[in-house]
Write a structure and sequence with these properties.
97 residues; alpha+beta
């Protein structure tokens, strides 16, 4: 099983668990958050929106991490290129017989 297949399987299992939990908790609730107050909202909506928001925040962190990792890889590749150029220049000046 590849890494992507494993992640897809875990995401599917997580989605199924959230769906079952949401359906079993279908009653209405009121929500107070900072200055907002919402009356009579279904728990399904609250649970699914919370899961979606958590997924989006995680996705943003992963995206930033991937950008930093890609930038670091490009930097290392540039260093390798420079070192190889220095090595070939050094061999031209001092050929080994």
């Amino acid at each position: 099983m590849s890494k992507n297949q494993f992640y897809f399987l875990m995401a599917t299992i997580f989605a199924i668990i959230i769906s079952i939990f949401s359906v079993q908790n279908a009653e209405s609730v009121s929500i107070n958050f900072l200055f907002w107050k919402v009356q009579s909202v279904s728990k399904i909506v609250v649970i699914l929106l919370s899961a979606l928001l958590g997924s989006l925040v995680t996705l943003c962190f992963v995206f930033v991490w991937q950008l930093k990792k890609r930038s670091y890889i490009l930097q290392l590749e540039a260093q390798i290129k420079d070192l190889k150029k220095m090595e070939t220049d050094k061999e031209r000046v001092n050929p080994i017989n």
